[in-house]
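Comment on this:
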Amino acid sequence: MIFTVCSFYSYSEASQNTVNSPSSDAQPVVAVLDMNYIIDQAKASVVLRNQIEEERLKIQEEIKVIEDELRAKEKKLIEEQHVLDPRIAQERKNSLEKEFEQVQEMVGDKKVQISRKLENGMARIQNTIYEIVQKISKERNFPLIIPKNIVIYSVESLDITMDVLEQLNKKLPGLKENKEGN
């Protein structure tokens, strides 16, 4: 029993010594990073979001023109239906339905293209962020960098968000489309 008390005393004394007496050259071993802020504020993200929005608006305009044309054809068909031969009316109706299906397919394809462009752009931004984070981690000897959204409290000096954002904006000021349109 005496041995147990002595060993407990030695352990608790050693723990207090390491906690209460910080080394003069001790460096932080953890940094925090606000990924959401970086992705929201990065120049490349802003450019990407603007490109996506421009494409989305352009596609909406194209679709509106096509829909208006289809509605006009449908209206004309309805007006002429009582005068046309039933077989010809049915052929025109089938043709109109086929055009409508083609438009729906085109819209689906355009949505996929935009989605791919956004995914590829964001992946490129995130990969660049990770490269920068690794570089900062090595330069400043941070073996651990954690997301800011899971941290309850940290001192400002541990936050590398602005450093990463600054380097990201220098390294990747905007995104240019490659030949595949991504």
Summary: The first helix runs from residue 2 to 20. Strands lie at 30-33, 144-147. The radius of gyration is 31 Å. The chain has a mean pLDDT of 84.
